[in-house]
Amino acid sequence: MTKQLLKIDDICKIYDVENDFINEIFEYELITPIKTGSDLYIEDEELPVLEKIINLYYDLGVNLEGIEIIMNLLERIDEMNEEINRLQRIVKYFGQDL
Questions:
Q1: Domain ranges in the chain?
Q2: Using CA of residue 7, residue 52, residue 54, residue 13, what is the dihedral sign?
Q3: Is the distance from CB of 29 to CB of 67 less than 8 angstroms?
Q4: Residues 4, 43: contact at Cβ < 8 Å?
Q5: d(C-alpha 41, C-alpha 7), whole Å
Q6: Which pLDDT score is estimated for 63?
Q7: Which CATH number is 5-95's, of 3.40.50.510, 1.10.1660.10, 3.90.1150.10, 3.40.50.2300?
Q8: Which run of H or E residues covers position 95?
């Protein structure tokens, strides 16, 4: 499956957000931009993250510093869930012999 690039100008129109807001998101490294010529893009895989950021910012009034913390915590939770699942598989496998 190939990744698609979404032009920032188009995203701003679709989500009705300012380019400055998207640039701030890039400054906080919440999403990584891809520059091609004079245009900025994001990969389509990052669209759910962008939507989450937009919702936190506009719907809940969370500032970008808070969003950065939330996104880091969510990433850690995902990592911990993966570790829990891995450990559960190990216990399940070896637990049969206990």
A1: 5-95
A2: positive
A3: no
A4: yes
A5: 4
A6: 96
A7: 1.10.1660.10
A8: helix 64-95
Q: Largest alpha-carbon pair distance within the chain?
A: 62
Cα angle at 61 between 60 and 65, to 5 degrees?
Answer: 115
Q: What is the pLDDT of residue 26?
A: 95
Do the strands 34-36 and 39-43 form a parallel or antiparallel pair, or are they unpaired? Answer: antiparallel
Other CB atoms within 10 A of residue 67 CB: 21
Helix (H, G, I), strand (E, B) or coil at 37: coil
Tens of pLDDT, residue by residue over 15-52, are: 999 999 999 999 999 999 999 888 999 999 999 999 99
- Token digits of residue 61: 């009034």
- pLDDT-derived band at 96, boundaries 50, 70, 90: low
